[in-house]
Amino acid sequence: MTPVDSDKPALFLPDLCGVRALFGVVIIGELLAVILTLVGSGINASALEQLSLVSMFTQWIGLSAAAALCWTRRWLERLPESSAALTSYFLILLVVYLVSELAWWVVNPLSGIDPIIGLQHTDFLARTLGISAIVGALVLRYFYVQHHWKLRTVSEAQARLEALQARIRPHFLFNCMNTIASLTRTDPVAAERAVEDLADLFRASMGEVRSLVTFEEEFDLVRGYLNIEGLRLGARLQTKWDIGSIPGSGRIPLLTLQPLVENAIYHGIEPLEDGGLIEISAVCEDQTIRISIENPVPKTTTRHHHGNRLAQENVSQRLLAHFGDQGGLEINEEDERYRVTVTVPMEFDSANSHR
Fold it and tell me: How many CB atoms sit inside 10 A of residue 164's CB?
């Protein structure tokens, strides 16, 4: 997927200065050469020789057109989309005409009984321009449709992320408000501290849905939430942190860990009479960072409802939208211990995120 960006849409043409785009141009030119050879001479003794000549010619045209569009890209980006499309189309035809003229006067001998190009000059130009006009229009149309499909995908991903974040916000709000209300008369200082922690959570939940924050910023939000719940649960809630190996350059979607920690408390610590220990750890391996949240769970007969799957699914979809296959959520449950592991790439360029 492509990044979620509210800026002005880029030119519908791909970056033809890049290796991947040039490789595509070469493949298209070679396929066209094969088709023209089969249509022209069929399969015979001279087919390979004919294919080599046609292939060389189509590659001249394709790579020259790609170079022209590459050099004029900055100028094309300033034009309205329809004007950029028409200009690109006529630029391709101009390149085709110039390359065809060059091929005619350089490759085809001026005299001799066996010319390489067995067509009259005007016939050769007309056929070349006609075929190029059709192929160029189809390729530009493909680029246009693909570009707008990506824009729609980006827009849908943005809307999905906003919906997911909106569903996460109420999940922690009500528990926090109840805790603060219970502390207002008994411990005003603790209530004030809880309000500050809640304000930090509010600022995070109201921030940009596409934001990637550092691990330290995300961990601070988790600590603030644990402070609020610690006031409510007291000694029943214990925490252990082991995150010293996390690099400072690591990034994670905003509010990824807090909903998982809330699940650990609601579905693991609260139902247990004596509470329990939540362990938050992180390791780096194979250019990925794995953050685990582990908690005890009661027996199935006394456990809360299984609504934790909703928050986990939301977080999983957010990781997928940001990182694609590089991110994920893994769940393991054994020996009355429940562990959720978040996987994100160690180094991530937000400009290329799948959002």
Answer: 20
Closest CA to 141 of 192, 85, 184: 85
Q: For residue 116, which amino acid is it?
A: I
Nearest-angstrom CA–CA distance, 53 and 65: 19
- The pLDDT, as a whole number, for residue 12 is 83
CA angle 231–235–240, rounded 5-degree value: 95
Query: Which residues are paired to 338 by β-bridges?
Result: 295, 333
As a whole number of Å, the CA-based R_g of the chain is 31
Q: What tens digit of pLDDT does each residue of 98-108 get?
A: 988 888 877 76
How would you classify the pairing of strands 276-285 and 328-334? Answer: unpaired
CA atoms of 160 and 9, how far apart (whole Å): 20
Angstrom distance (rounded) from CA 145 to CA 149: 6
Length, in residues, of the chain: 355
The structure tokens listed for 341 are 């592991």
Q: How far apart are CA 31 and CA 28, in angstroms?
A: 5
pLDDT at 242: 92
Determine how β-strand 337-345 pairs with β-strand 288-296: antiparallel
pTM above 0.85, yes or no: no
- Phi/psi region, residue 226 (left: phi>0; alpha: psi -120 to 50; beta: rest), is alpha
- Supply 1's token pair: 């997927």
Main-chain phi, psi angles of 280, to 5 degrees: -115, 115
For residues 51, 53, 55, 61, the Cα torsion angle rounded to the nearest 10 degrees is -150
Indicate the range of 72-76, 322-326, 346-350 predicted with least confidence.
346-350
Are the C-beta atoms of 331 and 340 separated by less than 8 Å?
Answer: yes
Alpha carbon distance 53, 36 (integer Å): 11
Nearest to 143 by CA among 58, 59, 28, 250: 28
Stretch 252-269: mean pLDDT: 88
Residues of the chain above pLDDT 90, percent: 15
Q: How many CB atoms lie within 10 A of CB 327?
A: 24
Host H or E run for residue 281: strand 276-285
